[in-house]
Design goal:
122 residues, mainly alpha
């Protein structure tokens, strides 16, 4: 299928905007306390409970947290965010079966009750 130069320009414009949006989201996450503080710590219990209440039925936000678990591939500066995201997903009992979690690096993440059946953790 041949694309016209106008279609190609439009596609590049859309992709460029998508990259800018992703960049801005990552910049915001990097500066947010979710990427700085260990939310497994008891002092963040109430904040974490509020987050869980707000997102428990929101599939897009849950998918965003699943994406955040994989951020280390993009940038190692998101280890705390990834750890917090994984902890939150486990506590919400989100199905993580068959997830590709190979080579993930986490720190200080409480994963009690996690079910990693058929997950690639190598």
């Amino acid at each position: 299928m041949n694309q016209s130069s106008e279609d190609m320009e439009e596609n590049l414009f859309v992709e460029g905007n998508d990259i800018k949006i992703i960049h801005n989201i990552l910049k915001t996450i990097k500066e947010y306390q979710f990427n700085i503080n260990n939310f497994s710590d008891e002092k963040f219990f109430q904040i974490k409970e509020e987050i869980k209440k707000k997102i428990k039925e929101n599939k897009e936000i849950i998918e965003l947290f699943k994406f955040l678990v994989h951020l280390w591939v993009i940038d190692g500066q998101f280890i705390v965010c990834k750890s917090n995201s994984l902890n939150l997903l486990v506590e919400m009992k989100i199905d993580l079966k068959s997830q590709q979690l190979e080579n993930i690096k986490i720190q200080n993440a409480l994963l009690i009750g996690a079910d990693f059946v058929r997950c690639n953790l190598s």
